[in-house]
Amino acid sequence: MDFDTTFEAHYPGLVRYCRRLTGDPDAAEDVAQESFVRLFDHGIEGTADGLRAWLFTTATHLVRDRYRVETNRRRLLEENPVEPTTGESPDRSLERSEDRARALAALDTLATRDREILLMRYSGFSYKEIAESVGVAATSIGTLLARAEARFEEACVSGEAA
Amino acid sequence: MTHLDEGTILTIRDHGLVDADAHEHLDRCASCTSALAAAQGRADAVARSLRALDDGPPIDVDAAKAAVRRRLDERREAPRPRVPGVYGSLGRAALLVALASGAVYALPNSPLRGWLAGDDVPGRSTVETTADGEPAATEGVELAVPTGGLSIALTTAAMGQRVEVRWVDGDRLTVEAGADSRYQVSDGRVGVDLGPGDVRIDVPAGNEPIIVEVNGRMILQRVDGGLVVQGDVLSSDPSGIVFTVGQR
Ligand SMILES: [Zn+2]
User: Fold this and answer.
1) Which of A46, A61, A42, A48 is nearest to A133 (CA)?
2) Fewer CB within 10 Å: C terminus or N terminus of chain B?
3) Which CATH number does A90-161 carry?
């Protein structure tokens, strides 16, 4: 397996997934890098899709194992407001910061497994891949995802109203 | 008329496999068609909300690559626990995966198997089935832990599940659990996301401190030659203790 090709193909997407999962850019990079270390260290081989699924699953497990996501998110929200992008109006910057806080808080309302299912789906994985990753039957993903989406959106909307 | 359930509607939305009947129903049911449209709308809304989380510093792929290379070099230079062999005393239907510390995703029944191109993870794992090739009833990890502390954390344990801890000679820690369990092994620590079935943990008698946790609660601690038992004990004898998982 070619280090550079694999890395360039999957690293940015994995970091974005980990940002969503942890809400913490530093933790996201750390988890994504550790996943790649394990991939190469264990000599894992497979198709591009197979490796991608392996990396995302490994990252999901690392987050579950290492980061107490819920408490982290709250701390992060308090400590790290979104940095304004250069040239952005203060209003727009505030709005982005609020959107982000709302989405993080909404993810917090989900059970760990539901959050993982939601985020893997919105990273483009099939129900079968998600099922294998979180360890449930593929036939139940639709139902679990429906519940996770409904709860997430409800929490986003009620956050908006607040 | 029975309408499609929400799981089926989402599966159709996300281009998953459903019965032909479901598609037929959808073709002639206005209510399910509008439910599908609503589900599509919700997907768009969720995707939009999630994009708010993508903000962050630009991703520096080259720097990350260098960091991963550094970590790999460090790991390869560090002394490794020696690769354990296959453990001999398991029951007939048992299957054992012997893994070096850290090699965790290559368990025979784990989803990873399906993702891999080959049949096995090359390198440091050893996989063996029973002679008659029966499907595994239990799986486990075994690692060599010559000295030092160990922590074993069992999560998603069900009430009434049986956890047996035995002291054994030698330097091998083994943890066996139901076939649906998932393992994570890192330095001196084994995490098991438990599936149904009894759990058996063989702990080297010489290692200390030992901590066994179930669902985040310590059930057993061995430190300075003393034993602190906090779990619900079913039975015990000098060679070990059998716990049952209590209410959280
Ligand atoms: Zn209908």
Assistant:
1) A61
2) N
3) 1.10.10.10
